[in-house]
From TrEMBL:
Keywords: Signal, Transport. Residues 93-409 form the Solute-binding protein family domain. InterPro entries: SBP_5, SBP_5_dom. One of its GO terms (biological process) is peptide transport. The keyword Glycoprotein does not apply. Pfam families: SBP_bac_5. This is Solute-binding protein family 5 domain-containing protein. Transmembrane segments: none annotated.
């Protein structure tokens, strides 16, 4: 199985910290008293207000975690938390766990959980709730490295031990990133598992700093502050209002008009650069917070040309990643030849990738019995439309005829 990485989109979020853009006619601001300025700085962040956010993609599921797509999990983060997460430097930091101990020799991982935390429905966060969430993922077959969990043992109220059949260094990432929802809220949501799952897709009951109060797919997602949040003094905001604006032109106009505070999943790099020139602040992200665009070949179908390893190698040689990254990313995208970006711990700096070589691609296709090429379909979201067009051209050059299938995020 060959996973073909294309580019890393670093332009994930656009945060407007200063919505007004000064003009030449504006007067200079009055002088500021230094003592008054120091007093204001000592006061710290100001509480209150609603952050207005717009998104180029939108969640289809905000509460049934085994089915979470990347967009779903991003929008659920204000409500649902994990055992641990990464900070901006790529260091794992505790969240619902305070610490953990890996014992590769004895094939165990023990999690020590944070005390005094409750879900939005008032039920306690504890080891049993943690065990239940892992079991939910295991039963759905959606937990990465879940096949290595032999058993889950609740040691005490706030300690749980995983007994494993094998160990690898990915496990803390994979297990620690499971998003924890209220077992009670889920179990009481219906008489059948199907009813409970359907309810959870539209309802988010976690331990996070905000609660979901309204969710309309492809329209709006509204959060209110959680007054019982376990982090002292947080959250600062009274709420968050997220609206779905898939058209980048409309989204950019909304930002420029000061009608939104943040634009997430803003992949229209030219629009972002234009807004940056007009005074809005752009968070270009890091390799840790980027989004990957990759080709996932249907190699499991024995009748598909993509089941042939030489065909998959030919596709790699047929694509000029640096050119795509430069053309569509305006220098802000990183071409990828492996699944880890240069900022990730798993990145292999001395990896020797297959270069762009269309002649080599044609040779491999001929060796695989596809000298005349073949037809295939690329399923993608609207966000990747331009990238698919580029792939269509590169693959067409070596005889692979691509039919784009641009889907809404739910079908995708």
């Amino acid at each position: 199985f060959l996973l073909i990485s294309l580019v890393l989109l670093l332009a994930l979020s656009l945060a407007a910290l200063s919505l007004g853009c000064p003009t030449e006619e504006e007067e200079e601001p009055p002088p500021v008293d230094e003592e008054e300025e120091e007093e204001e700085e000592e006061e710290g962040p100001v509480y209150g207000g609603i952050m207005k956010c717009i998104g180029g993609t939108f969640p289809v599921n905000i509460g049934y975690t085994p089915e979470f797509m990347p967009t779903d999990s991003i929008y659920a983060l204000p409500c649902i938390e994990r055992l641990c997460e990464w900070d901006e430097e790529g260091i794992q930091i505790p969240v619902l766990a305070t610490s953990w101990v890996s014992d590769p020799d004895n094939l165990t991982i023990t999690w020590y959980l944070r005390e005094g935390v409750t879900f939005h429905d008032g039920t306690p966060w504890n080891a049993e709730a943690c065990r239940w969430n892992f079991q939910l993922q295991l039963d759905a077959g959606r937990l990465a490295d879940g096949q290595y969990i032999e058993s889950l043992k609740v040691v005490d109220e706030h300690t749980i031990t995983m007994h494993l059949t094998a160990y690898n260094w990915h496990m803390i990432d994979n297990y620690g990133w499971v998003m924890m929802i209220s077992p009670t809220a889920f179990e009481n949501a219906g008489d059948t598992l199907e009813e409970r799952i359907e309810w959870a897709r539209s309802n988010s009951v976690g331990t996070g700093s905000f609660k979901v109060v309204d969710f309309q797919r492809d329209v709006v997602l509204i959060y209110d502050r959680n007054d019982n949040y376990w982090r002292e003094g947080m959250p600062y905001l009274d709420g968050i209002e997220a609206r779905y604006i898939p058209d980048p032109v409309t989204a950019a106009a909304t930002m420029e008009a000061g009608e939104a505070d943040m634009w997430v999943y803003a992949s229209a790099v030219q629009s972002i650069l234009d807004l940056e020139e007009k005074g809005l602040t752009v968070n270009w992200g890091t390799g840790l917070s980027g989004m990957f665009w990759s080709l996932l070949p249907n190699s499991s179908d024995p009748d598909s040309p993509l089941a042939n390893e030489e065909v998959r190698e030919a596709i790699e040689y047929a694509i000029d990643r640096p050119a795509i990254a430069e053309m569509l990313g305006y220098g802000k995208w990183e071409p990828l030849h492996q699944m880890a970006s240069s900022a990730w711990p798993g990145y292999v700096p001395d990896y020797d990738p297959r270069p762009y070589d269309p002649d080599k691609a044609r040779e491999l296709l001929a060796d695989a019995g596809y000298a005349g090429g073949f037809e295939t379909t690329i399923l993608a979201t609207d966000m990747a439309r331009d990238a698919v067009a580029a792939l269509q051209a590169y693959l067409g050059d070596v005889g692979i005829i691509v039919e784009p299938d641009i889907a809404d995020f739910g079908r995708y």
